[in-house]
Amino acid sequence: MNITLAQAEKLVAAAKEKATAIDTKMNIAVVDAGANLVAFVRMDGAWLGSLDISIKKAKTARFFDMNTGIVGELSQPGGSLYNIEHSNGGLITFPGGIPVKNADGEIIGAIGVSGSSVENDHAVAGAGASAL
Amino acid sequence: MNITLAQAEKLVAAAKEKATAIDTKMNIAVVDAGANLVAFVRMDGAWLGSLDISIKKAKTARFFDMNTGIVGELSQPGGSLYNIEHSNGGLITFPGGIPVKNADGEIIGAIGVSGSSVENDHAVAGAGASAL
Amino acid sequence: MNITLAQAEKLVAAAKEKATAIDTKMNIAVVDAGANLVAFVRMDGAWLGSLDISIKKAKTARFFDMNTGIVGELSQPGGSLYNIEHSNGGLITFPGGIPVKNADGEIIGAIGVSGSSVENDHAVAGAGASAL
Amino acid sequence: MNITLAQAEKLVAAAKEKATAIDTKMNIAVVDAGANLVAFVRMDGAWLGSLDISIKKAKTARFFDMNTGIVGELSQPGGSLYNIEHSNGGLITFPGGIPVKNADGEIIGAIGVSGSSVENDHAVAGAGASAL
């Protein structure tokens, strides 16, 4: 099972709507079950540096099938996954990446959002992830 | 002058429509005047390897403000730009990347398409580039 | 709006003058609104390792439109942006990078300085950023 | 013996003057004897993709203490240095990079220029290299 482009575009549209509703400018990335990019948009005026971060958040969420913030709790100094960010060409492990599931609960991809506080990033990613 | 997301989405939609019309599955990337990604879609079933190629084509077209195929004519063995592909983290210099201009003729970004023959890639990129 | 080379050279000259005034040897980099390098100088005897750091500071300041030191406060262990440095091919998040604005307050680029203490780096970057 | 910043700035100024005289927009890079960047400028409107190329030309010229075009003659298919461009993080081996010598004929650095035809690039690099 893999996310389709039509599904990814539905996620992006829902995330954009949420981003606008809370007055933020976001980079929004959706990857498939293979952790490869399916859709991406950068809203006008969004931080340039968040382009790469949004894609890395989406990949990180699919790499480990969990919210990026959970990985980040384990990657702190002394944590069991300390500095895991060095793997896979660079992970981003703070909130804003969320796995995407189909109606059967199977993971079919992930969404990553970056451009504001991590709370806002996570909220916008959540709006996208729950759009299916 | 820089391309907006709304403009980039118009380019992507036109390119997708053309890709469907000629029965191809494409990766479509749009970068801004700074050669940074603004929008991207991968059509269902499109080659995975064309993901990176479409982005590199868009960047290459903006890097030199010309169609990627023109760079490729000059980078052949014995040509004046032989092996220019080793610069900028990797260029793609066969057809499928086209600069995008606004109504005043200023370059505001570029589109890159990959997923079929270079003729088809170029045709789909052209449909996108002329959508503004 | 994008910084011009003439403006970038004015920034570099002001930063060099400040570096000399406080008896330091600096690497000084200026990027444009697209985070691409516009001007760079390495003063005689400046640390070689600071070459890349000055460029990464300038890019980081433009990537997030804030002083690099602010990013660094948030990227500490336990902070909301922990290990953000793994994005964008490597960020530098300690002081010395500052966005550059035009007379209308629009960000048109950024300056990054490295070669001494972070306090001195920041002071020299500030002398550059305020030269317009 | 190593090039000084004052010398590098003299090279850059001479190269800029030549670029303007022949109506071109150039990226101009100067490296020292250690092949590390000393000075760089990107003229307004110069190709973005030539930024990296100008730096790689300067490094290539110093890496092998010869004009980049000479390396390029040897790196052609069947040539003795075929595909040498894959080394050192990417070489550029077409004309536009020239070693810089002091009054005693010792190589103290190199200049790399990119932004027009390779003939123009080489002419502008030559104007810089002979400015000492």
TrEMBL record, chains A, B, C, D:
UniProt cross-references to SUPFAM superfamilies, sorted A to Z: GlcG-like
UniProt xrefs under InterPro entries: GlcG_carb_metab_protein, PduO/GlcC-like, PduO/GlcC-like_sf
PANTHER family assigned to the protein according to its UniProt record, in alphabetical order: PROTEIN GLCG (PTHR34309:SF1), SLR1406 PROTEIN (PTHR34309)
Protein name in UniProt: Uncharacterized protein, possibly involved in utilization of glycolate and propanediol
Organism: Aequorivita sublithincola (strain DSM 14238 / LMG 21431 / ACAM 643 / 9-3)
Lineage: Bacteria, Pseudomonadati, Bacteroidota, Flavobacteriia, Flavobacteriales
